[in-house]
Amino acid sequence: MSQDMYAGYFGLSRRPFTLVPDPDLLFWSPQHKRAFAVLEYGVMSRAPITLITGEVGAGKTTLLHALLGRMTSDLRVGLVANAQGDRGELLQWAMNALGMDLHEGESYVQMFRRLQDLLVADYAAGRRVVLIFDEAQNLSKAGLEELRMLTNINSNQDELVQLILVGQPDLRRMVTDTDMHQLAQRVAANFHLDALDRQSTVAFIVHRLKLAGGCGAEIDLTAAEMAHDITGGVPRLINQLCDLAMLYAWSDTEAVVGTSVMERVLDDGVFFGGGLMECEAG
């Protein structure tokens, strides 16, 4: 059975609410525009550390993919998706992300020296290095401090490596703890992504439907507003719920997703929704 089974029924070219981060489907809400502007500002202004935080499913990783798509050839970019471990392992994650070979039995000092040599060589060649750590809330405070030490590598007062730390709210709390003030002082650009409000949730749903070839009314306004109440405006949860609702409408041969379809999805317990809210719509 095709994964796009309901798309043709609604006259769509593809499923509009898939969960895979896709910058082509990114909904540029006002706060997502500001978050992206902060990311670009951090890169272009040579900020030592740029910090982007938000709840699970707020669109942080999708923003990162959009940023990667705009990186120019004068940048060497390394993306670490979910680094964990002690400082030696963290250094290996960084080296691997930058395309460096790892040598068995190499000491921490030797690895650090090779990384420093790469940064210096790139700087001499007019290339800047940007290291991005996604899901950085999984790092320990010792790991974050290790990353801060990387920003101390400089030449003629210029930063040789810039860090972009992206993660859940716990990351912001760690960075702002009193014992992390040295790290916090290196954060030159930061933004926190909140959930979408009701108006933006409706616009998000319409946006996704239109990008998939629809008219935007395949989910009616009342159902779209109900989706906000159910999901709390978290984009990933909106995608999950609307995907299931369109599947239900297709299976019941309904032309439009209305509130009754949303209610059936909830009644059947197929949408977990992170336990955010209970819908009171009738």
What does it look like?
This protein has two domains: 7-14 and 196-268, Orthogonal Bundle (Helicase, Ruva Protein, domain 3), CATH 1.10.8; 30-193, Rossmann fold, CATH 3.40.50. The protein has eleven helices and seven strands. The chain has helices spanning 30-44, 60-68, 87-97, 108-124, 141-150, 169-175, 181-184, 198-211, 221-231, 235-251, 259-267; strands spanning 49-54, 75-80, 128-133, 154-155, 158-159, 161-167, 187-193. A five-stranded parallel sheet has the order 2-3-6-1-7, sandwiched between helices. A two-stranded antiparallel sheet has the order 4-5. Strand 4 (154-155) and strand 5 (158-159) form a beta hairpin. Helix 3 (87-97) packs parallel to helix 4 (108-124), helix 9 runs parallel beside helix 11 (259-267) and helix 10 crosses helix 11. The protein is elongated, with a radius of gyration of 22 Å. It starts with 29 loop residues before the first helix and ends in a 15-residue tail after the last helix. Mean pLDDT is 89; it is low at 274-282.
